Protein 1
Amino acid sequence: MNRLTGRGVMETIDWRLVICYLLLILIGWMNIYASIHSTEPASIFDFSCRSGKQFVWIVSSLGLAAIILFALNPRIYESLSVPIYGFTILLLIAVIFLGTEVKGSRSWFSFGPVSFQPAELSKIATSLMLATVMSQSGFRMSNMKHFLATAAVIIVPMAIIVAQSETGSALVYVGFVFMLYREGLSGWLLFIIGMAILLFILTLTSSAYTSILVLAIVTTLCSAMYYDRIKSWLKIYLPSFIVLGLLPFLHDKLSGLTDNPEAFILKVKPMYIFAAAAAVSIPIMAFKAFRSGGAFRWLAIASFIVGVLFVFSVDFLFHDVLQDHQRKRIEVLLGLKDDPTGVGYNVNQSMIAIGSGGFFGKGFLKGTQTTYGFVPEQSTDFIFCTIGEEWGFVGAAAVIFLYVFLIWRIIADAEQCREAFTRIYGYCVAGCIFMHLFINIGMTVGLMPVIGIPLPFISYGGSSLWAFTVLLFIFIALVRNERKYF
Amino acid sequence: MKLDRTNKIRAGLLIAALILVIRLFTIQIIDDKYKIDASNNSMVHAVIYPTRGIIYDRNGKILVGNKVAYDMLVTPKEVGEFDTLALCEILEITPEFLKEKMDGYYRDRRKIGYRSVTMLTHLPPEIFMKFAEVSYKFPGFRGQARNIREYPYNAGGNLLGYISEVSADDIRSHPDTYNAGDYIGKTGIEATCEEYLKGEKGYQIFLRDSRNRIESRYKDGEMDKEAIPGKDIVTTIDAELQHYGQELMQNKVGSLVAIEPSTGEILTLVSSPGIDVEMLADIGKYYRQIASDPYKPMFNRAVQSAYPPGSVFKLVNGLIGLQEGVLTPETHYPCSMGYHFGRNKLGCHAHRSPLDLQESVMMSCNAYYCYVLRNILENDKYGSIAEAMDAWNRYVKSFGFGRKLGSDFPSELGGTIPDSKYYDSVYGAGSWKATNVISLSIGQGEIGCTPLHLANLCATMANRGFYYIPHLIRGTENVSIDPKYYRKQYTLVDTSYFPVMVEGMYRAVNSGYGSGATAAVAAVEGLDICGKTGTAQNPLGDDNSVFICFAPKDDPKIAVAAYVEHGSFGARWAAPIASLLVEKYLNGEIGESRRPLEKRVLEGNLLDKMNIKGN
């Protein structure tokens, strides 16, 4: 039984979210103008350039938002989620065969000047579908059938998107993990999967040495936390890990000093020292475990050994078994090597642009890097460079703060909701936005590999702006609906 | 706040955001690397090369000037289809060369990117103009003008030196001044006066986009810098005389140095065989040939070769004897075909006996100077021969021998003059006598000096007791030289002792044939040349021919030292060469009567006498 609370528009709509949204699209629009700004400036409304086009997208997005807020009944989403999801899957498959090829991947439909990416729609569809499936009464995450159904909802579109060679867009689906966690997914399972992914990426991007170091830190820390021995961990393990962490740099420096190819230092690799340290400390730990009978200690040792085997097999497979071209494909897939012409060029240019901004930035339209087109994809995936260069640390941090505030508010609203559907959907939205935020900004500052996904609300592009507008405003409408009736 | 799952997610969000913010803080505020990169990235500094300073001779004639040549640049990214044969024909290169170059660019295409690379250097303007007319047919190819050196006179190749592209070491030692591709003086005046000659590079700043396309002038050229041309250098060389000196020395190994005694300015400095200026202009092409030449044309013998001075050195010993009071102009000594001591003899040529001091100079008597040196070393004034030896050493060094004169040649050799320590180490302390070192009396033995030292001795004789440090660069309002070059350097011998020796030198030249004078061949009527011959032993073959002379006697304008390896007697080659140089300088031309002598010198070839390994 629903009953109206009689609260009006002003009270039921979460205006903080709306204002946050408006600020972000405004920032986006200004910076798109700045990023296409050249020595021959055009008006921000010039429809032949991207800022003018973005204005059209913004106006239409606001229209969409208004329709979702005021015209549509929020109840329809739950009942429509299945057909929407089905339709989206069809579109995702269709685009592989019918789409236009852009940069080696078929993920766009083109209708004259307008193009559309089904992957954008699939974020909304999957979120709705997840909310529908998981809000059924009697749904239990611990129930294997239910869990598998949930996993399928996420993995099916993800797999199709990977098949489109849009690995970056697929990575966004990892964001749903936050929602799954909130809804009762085992933390340990998440942790192990997370570690495996981390070790895998670290092994490929950095080195086996780094991966094993991280693994050792994590296992010993877990063990220490479990037995409440943090203090002794800080005293004994942390310093030795710092030493081991600095070892490769030291080794590099020292071997740079000698010209003798037979020098002792060149023969002793940091890995050998690590192995020696492990060979000494593992038996000691095993002895401790044996004496105290601590099962967790055994577990920690076992997982460390399993982890080491995992890292070495990844390392071996990747570097010794795979052929060159296969390796390259994986590297491209992972975004380790984005463009064949210049590895790291984009990231380097982007970091130069952001780094040159300094504390207060160079000022609006004054960026030299952005104005002269050094940064590729500058109004879409690398829009954050413009912000970093022209608005400096202050501006860039402020934008990050806005996102954090937005996500925080979504989580807060979601938690207040009584209906599981709204809450689950809210977490999905938060997870999507967070993944986009972290991957995109992480990429521009060189923390993440180059994965071409847009910065929500800010990046140029109608498809993405519409999708995020719809994604967010469905949530605002759902929240509003709850406030109206509860 | 309890740590439920919602809050853990929130904490994760904050940590993630914090990581991003810390990263931003690092690259935007802590790390300077990216700021520096940014200005490199978007601004192009188009370098404007200054013209290099011109090198003049003492009379304002250009020794080294500039002319324009072109470098052919290629921007591989912009090269499209083109008629390779036509291009080869225009540039006068072979199709194979072009193909090899283009293949190389293709291989390195990633490294080159949008940049331009140099394909050819030193294209003469005629060829470049032919290319320029049809350059539209060859996109991606363009010429760049560059100043290269031009040498109107074939004079002083060794002195002038050459310029070539800076080496990695040059860049490392002057990182602010030179960039790869700049030119720097490597040897000679080009190197010593690099600071003046090089000028200052200017630049125009352009803003460019990531494809290297120039977008606009930065701040409308407000920050641009004009190039400052290099300063001109005036040398003390007389181009005509230098050229004539080189001709006289052609096909002979040795040196010819002429100094203006009243200033110490070097008029001519020939090291033969030397480097042709033709080769200097394009040193890269000839470097291998020059470096492998057995006669070592790069080696400047005039300042880098230590020779025994031979009898020329008798002048110094005579002056020391006079100063020490062990010799007077009237002292007579006998000579019977040499100086006999114990069972040994230091031989001499046939001449009348006994001789006084002037005659000993005129006829270059060996025995006379054995007595003189012996008297110097066995002077009771000194407690031991070692003390006397060191006193002698001090005298000799005051003439500039045995040390670097301090000229403006960077690679000047000091030479050697022995002292008591040296002989102590050879014979054992206290176990040597004057007779052991007797060959010093005639400029043999352990004496090593450069032709420049000898020319300086000659200038000292001409000035009657002092010299100016020989130098090659004249001070002008642009170029300041060390004030030491303007200071008289006195020897330890009183100036009053010089005239008698000068008189001897005068008589050596002007006493006529049959008088016993050694240098009659050098006499030129009306020039009052004073000279002293020398014949220095050369263990590798024939003796070296040595001669120093100055003229005119009473108002010396030029002091010359000629040193010809394997030239036998001083009078045979060195005296004619030196006197011809003097005649040319003072009279402007060679008198009729001396033309045959000049012909003999110009045609003389002594290269075969060089004992060169492998030849």
Note: Residues 117 and 320 of chain A are 38 Å apart (CA to CA).
Protein 2
Amino acid sequence: MPQVAWRTSALVAVAVFVVAMAAWELHVRSRGYEATLNDSSDLWARARSRLTDDPGQTVIVGSSRIQFDFDLATWMKVRGCDTPVQLAMPGSNPTAVLEDVAASDFRGDLILGATPALWFVPQGMPVYRSAQALGRHENWSPSQKTGLALAVPLQRSLAMINAEDLTLAGLLGRFELPDRPGAAANISPSEPPFFGAPDGDRQVRMWSNCDFGTPLAGMIQQVWPPLFTPPPPPPHLSPEEFQGMLEANGKAHLERMAAAIAAIRERGGRVVWVRPPSAGGVRDIERATAPREVLWDPILAVTGAPGIHFEDHPELAAFDCPEWSHLTAADAVRFTEILAPMLVAALDGQ
Amino acid sequence: MLFNSLTFVAYFGVLLAAYYSLRSWRWQKVLLLLASYAFYAAWNPPFVILLWISTGIDWFAARRLDVEDRRGARIALLCVSLGANLGLLGFFKYGGFMLENFQNMVGFYGMNFEAAKPSIILPVGISFYTFQTMSYTLDVFLKRAKPSRSFLDFALYVTFFPQLVAGPIVRATHFLPQCETPRRATADMFRWGLFLMTLGLFQKIVLADVMLAPAAETVFEWTRGPLATVDAWLGVLAFSGQIFFDFAGYSTCAIGAALCFGFSLPDNFRCPYAAIGFSDFWRRWHISLSSWLRDYLYIPLGGNRGGRIRTDANLMATMLLGGLWHGASWTFVVWGGLHGLFLGVERALRGRFGGAAWIATWPGRILLGLITYFLVNITWVFFRAQDFGSAKLLLLSMFGVITDGAQVLPTLEMAKVAITVTLLVIFHWIHRSIPVERAAERLPGWAHGMVWGGMLVLLGLAQGSDNAFIYFQF
């Protein structure tokens, strides 16, 4: 053991840590951050375990739009049911999650949130996110369960615990060093910063800093186009070959969705698709690269489940998104109030 | 349970409080044993049974070996121990690998054999605790050690949670004597233990996971063809740093955690990237494994007692098996084979040029050290690559044989790797001759505390992660 003035050393270390962390907490709170939960794989696994306990519940599968835009409390009020199991995941291809629900004993109401292009992403982060969450659910260890139980009170107390914005890796990422021109095509586009806070039921509410006209909303508007724009054909494939691959992939995904939904309906489950609103530049990209007749209409036709597209209902189409892709927390409540009777009709009609 | 998890922080705090509230040494050991089982069960409770099997068989075998004089019976007892431990290892770790190779082999002879792919979960740390218990029985068989008189002490030796899942691989002769008298950390020992745990977590979470892992993962998981030379090299250098910080971080945490309970564990790393030659490297990298392989494999095979060719063959066999110990894949075997080859070449060169004066000079030593580090990085390609095709493509990219490879690393990641790996190598060279402990003594207490506090702050900012340590999969 080295001969160090250990007592002094330990006291200084604790003082440095406490002062620096307290200062950091005050600083991030002064910038509008509040204590929120992290939407981690553990939180997802906890939600998924509720489905195992009670397979007759309302379950939501999809990506971030349905997580932001569908207000669970409003649905509970309308339906008089328990808290729905929110399994939507930001930036994910939910096909594998749908298949997991289909493979369970689930026989309740399933609301499928459609950001249509995401359901067809063949690989990369959207597929990885679903696989990671499912892997956590399948191998959720006692240690990880305890870790979540300990993390929740900490996350509810400290604003500086924010996995999207305030980690060391995230802070280092703020050094905007220009990438080499040749590297740009190979580097994944940036993900949006923190703009929505999940609660314990994984209901995400948009952060007030991201309201209409805020700098954060403007910044996120610039993040979406590279993420929503499909990649160009790789150099070793002709455009025709690439198109052929995309069509084959689309067909395969549609077949997977149809098989999963058929399995759920055979058990007595009821399924409905919802296409939440998008706006501005994101809507323009979607119209150009994922028009409804290419993705939405085939989804309904092949899976045979009813669907509610916001464009078909003027009262839903009237909603706007501050950062072009998600509703504010207040709008999510109003949106769900209007959507709920339509959902009930679609579900009860099955 | 991961050291880098909130669960461990709570577990460790509660366990320390309970341990120091007990007066009886026997009950303290019982507590540590039960807590170690809980530590292991926190991953997958049924696998605790494997620990019990390994513990029970080696306890029984060693006790019998001690009273048995008949050579045949002694060998049979040793075979029971080795068979049980290697059987567990073989089934859980190498079952799928052996089946796959069998299928390939019969396929080579034109037969068609398709077996269902086995779905076997690898129990965490099985390579470590099976080697640890085997060393105990081998020591008793070779009459280097007497068997433990206490089952409790022996079970604690096998199961002691700080080193259970990723080493250091502790010898019974190091641990069991510590169980004979009550262990109680002094206040300074306790602070030193906590400092080591902070240092280990800092290595793992900040340096391995935040600074180096993104670049290493991007490069090694790139599947769309060759890479630009600079990206390929930075990815490999990043992995060289990542695996060091990850594994040395675990060992440092383990040593620190044990110290808090008054136990000492052996060092596992001594600035390996300042090694001059491969024999020096293996005296500095994963010391507890390399000394295990030396004592229980290389020396029993004949060591260096049978002439040059026999020595080289022994070295190669030891390193090939050492490679296989790391994982059930031929890429690990090739990694071990390259180390065996470099060790053999080094022996040959030393015999021929060992007396040259320039080797003893600083520039000469640094040149040889850098050559060693360069070759170690080549071996890491096989260690980390998913398959030989990926390894080949990466090597061709590194040496500029393919010139139009993809640039895949963001500038920020390139900067993180360049800075971290450069500092790592410089740090190892500085502390090659001045141990870190002695350097720490030169700092006044407040400055030492600032360094410690700085690491805590960066850990707090990193917010931890649930990234498992790389060596858990071995």
Note: The radius of gyration of chain A is 22 Å.
